[in-house]
Design goal:
- The chain has 379 residues and is α+β, with helices and mostly antiparallel strands.
- Helix content is 38%, strand content 18%.
- It contains eleven helices and eleven strands.
- A seven-stranded mixed sheet has the order 1-4-5-11-10-7-6, sandwiched between helices.
- Strand 8 and strand 9 form a beta hairpin.
- Helix 1 runs parallel beside helix 4 (73-112), helix 3 (59-68) runs antiparallel to helix 4 and helix 5 (131-144) crosses helix 10 (351-359).
- The two termini are 55 Å apart.
- It binds phenylalanine (PHE).
- Phenylalanine (PHE) binds at residues 200, 202, 242, 280, 283, 320-322, 346-348.
């Protein structure tokens, strides 16, 4: 009910002339009508109904008490008729308001639930390729163009594939719980069967050589795990891309030529590569490959500022590599990998590190927090 209206009240009747009675009943009926038109809900209807029909103090009762009862004898008949007519009108109007309030409520609900089918549909964002996956795909693409195929292997690996068949000595520090995440409750198993989260993609070298005879050219993208506390440059889970080429007469020259080509394809034809001696149990000789810093062009400075990505050296370490150690071939000799007949090279690089350098990201954690504000920038 609207409260900004001055509400109708039943006046006392002193003048029972036809003119006076007519005018009073017109006032009452017009109040009744105008109040009825603003009844739109069930609650408004109840207030309206009680105001006009409540037995004790409703307006219908009031006209009985204020108009009919005090009427002088000669006016009683007409007044009685009038009050009866008015009561009938009130009852009819209250009934009409009830119907209207029901209709009004459902009309309101309909209005609220209305669907405008002419509006354009809700667009669902299709997302973007994750920068690390994008980088891995780019690297894989470069090697596919050189005739390499893609191999994959399990992330939960045995000690045998992750270490033993890769010529790691029994007490190598990588086999320590400090560095490698082992699965719990395996104390009864022999060392080679113990399960761990692979620390590199190199075990897939062995798995693939067990399955496919030489010649072989494969790249192996995947997730790897190490027991490192997370910080800006470390994550207990990260990504590597491994490569392996085995054939007769593969030389260190093939390794250098292949990787030099790959770096030029990835970072631009002006980058230079450099190899420095290193050590891995499964390659001999082993090397670290550096690429000239593609941020500062190898100068070590950016304008007057020192170049941070290469720590002003002009070179960035990008991967580990080497010639496959004959001891590794011994483990797959039965499938055609006789170290006297075949030779090969292998390499492994960190995809996250390359993505960090490519996109100028300053914290590896950003890759794995799933914050769309970060990821949207690569859309
Ligand atoms: N697996 C080595 C690492 O994780 C990288 C590597 C792969 C080195 C292949 C040589 C050959 O550091």
């Amino acid at each position: 009910m609207r409260h900004d209206l001055v509400m109708y009240t039943v006046p006392k009747l002193t003048d029972y002339s036809a003119a006076s009675i007519n005018s009073e009943s017109r006032d009452l009926l017009s109040a009744l009508e105008s109040e009825a038109t603003v009844v739109n809900s069930e609650n408004e209807y109840k207030v309206f109904r009680d105001r006009w029909l409540a037995r004790k103090d409703g307006i219908a009762t009031q006209i009985n008490d204020l108009w009919l009862k005090p009427a002088p004898k000669e006016a009683k008949r007409d007044a009685g008729q009038l009050v009866n007519e008015l009561k009938k009108k009130i009852e009819e109007t209250v009934e009409r308001a009830l119907q209207h309030s029901k209709g009004g409520a459902s009309a309101l609900r309909l209005a609220a639930e209305r669907v405008d089918i002419t509006l354009p549909g809700v667009r669902r964002p299709i997302g973007a390729e994750h920068p690390v996956i994008k980088t891995m795909n780019e690297i894989v693409h470069v090697f596919r163009n050189l005739g390499y195929s893609v191999s994959e292997g399990p992330e939960v690996e045995t000690d045998y594939y992750n270490f033993e068949a890769l010529n790691f000595p029994p007490n190598h520090p990588a086999r320590d719980m400090q560095d490698t995440l082992f699965l719990a409750g395996q104390d009864k198993k022999g060392q080679r069967d113990r399960l761990l989260l692979r620390t590199h993609t190199s075990p897939v070298q062995i798995r693939t050589m067990e399955l496919l005879k030489p010649p072989l050219r494969i790249v192996i993208p995947g997730k790897v795990y190490r027991n490192d506390p997370p910080d800006a440059s470390h994550s207990p889970m990260f990504h590597q891309i491994e490569g392996l080429a085995v054939d007769t007469n593969i030389t260190f020259g093939d390794l250098k030529g292949t990787l030099d080509h790959a770096m030029k394809a990835l970072f631009g034809s002006s980058v230079k590569t450099q190899f420095r001696p290193s050590f891995f149990p499964f390659t001999e000789p082993s090397a670290e490959m550096m690429v000239s810093c593609f941020i500062c062009g190898g100068s070590g400075t950016r304008g007057t500022e020192p170049c941070r990505p290469c720590k002003t050296t002009g070179w960035i370490e990008i991967l580990g590599c080497g010639m496959v150690d004959p001891n590794v071939f011994e483990f797959v000799k039965h499938n055609g990998y006789d170290p006297k007949k075949v030779s090969g090279f292998a390499f492994g690089m960190g995809a996250d590190r390359i993505a960090i350098l490519k996109y100028g990201v300053d914290d590896i954690q950003l890759f794995f927090q799933g914050d769309v504000r970060f990821l949207q920038q690569f859309g």
